[in-house]
Amino acid sequence: MRAFLLQQMVEGMAARYPKQEAVRCGGAQWRFEELERVSRHWALELRARGCAEGARVGVWAPKSFSAVAALLAVLRAGGVYVPLDPGAPSARIERLASDCGLQFLWADASRIEMARRWPQPPPVAVLEEATGVQGTAEALPPPRRTSSDLAYILYTSGSTGVPKGVMLTHAHALNFIEWAAEEIGLGPGDRVASHAPFHFDLSIFDLWASLSRGATVCLLDPVTARFPSAVADWIEAERITVWYSVPSALVAMQACAARLCASGLRALVFAGEVFPMASLRAWRAALPNVPLHNWYGPTETNVCTHYPLLPGEPVPDPLPIGHACPDFELALRDESGAPTPEGAAGLLWVRGPGILAGYWGDGARFEQVSEVRATADGIPARWYNTGDWAHWSASGELVYEGRRDHVVKCRGYRVALREVEQALETCPGVQQAAVVPIPDALQTRALHAYVCTLNSTHAEAELRQHLASLLPAYMVPSRIAVVAWLPLTATGKIDRQRLAALEATVAAGGTSQ
Fold first, then answer.
1. What are the residue ranges of helices labelled H in 270-343?
2. CA spacing 20 to 30 A to 503: which of 41, 150, 223, 357?
């Protein structure tokens, strides 16, 4: 029977593969029957505490088997899970809890104490060690949820810096999970790396696509994740078969790529940002027989386009984001909403079964970035404006150009910041680059660049000379800083807001250290 709720997929696997490993963490393993037992126990506890259908339940704890079981328990109790960043300050979590009206909060002991100091804390419960949870014979009430009901809310700051609660239904999640599991060919023999934090949309694949196919979810702890060599050791030790992360994580691991050639890795998937071409080619050379999958989509759509790079195929430059996923439709429009001429860049609009249900408590924002238009068949459907610029290549592939807010006017010219970054990344020895626009004395924009190198040093003059050979003068940054590392967000992407804030501090007479 086809599942219509996320938890039903996992329950089906627990019945079919009770002894199969479901989750691994810190060298310990838990089988599907244990995941079923613990999540069932906690779902009943939530119901006993008064958790109603559709209640928002926060889970604020580090990655662990207990945290996975808690997310599943919320769904089994009929609730909506809200994963919260375990590394975020208490004040930020309090704001998010207030914004979505959390009715319950599950957290580890240290975070429970912080939550109890909030002015209006929701009912809280300590996320106990799952190994101590006993089973129960009591039956769960039959689910009254439907596929159109909310499954989870993911908070994302996006380019504005203002948190927004993206609402996703069971149907949205299932559409992605079923496609992704089929695309990668997930099965009980797979061991999938869980690199993304649970509050990041990449975790939907790690957790639910894996568990829906009887694969094993291997939780990578955040301490190990900081050290590329340690991550490579972990991939080998855990016999990881499928890896999914943002490109920045793979850039950091590039020096270790060749070590993984003899490992069991059979699929490398990345999404969330542009993969620097030099690093991508290094990974292709190190893993010539492993398919590389470039997936694209904001949190509001999860994955809506994909581009598989199969073994033996040349790496195109730039790497396309490819074609629409099944049942999705794409359109390029100008700022006024009109279709762009053939070959011209435009804002990418998307419609399909994975589009968000809305922003929690902010219908006005949802209306600003979406609209109802007829599809090619004349059927009214809601379209979402991704805010990303793209164009169709001569071969019919969609090519990402950058965020709408990453296209700026500089000295009267339109400049795509990603184009400058790509030019910097073609300089030998440069791993990654980030360019930020800074208001100048003429109230326009100056460009400042940060360049990360590995086992190499570059003088600013050398980088400037390299850019001068590739770009017009107005696109060459007025300042280029060589750094050992670029700051990352909690989800592993380059933290451009932090770089912009750093530039503002320097402009105000502060220090960049």
1. 277-286
2. 223
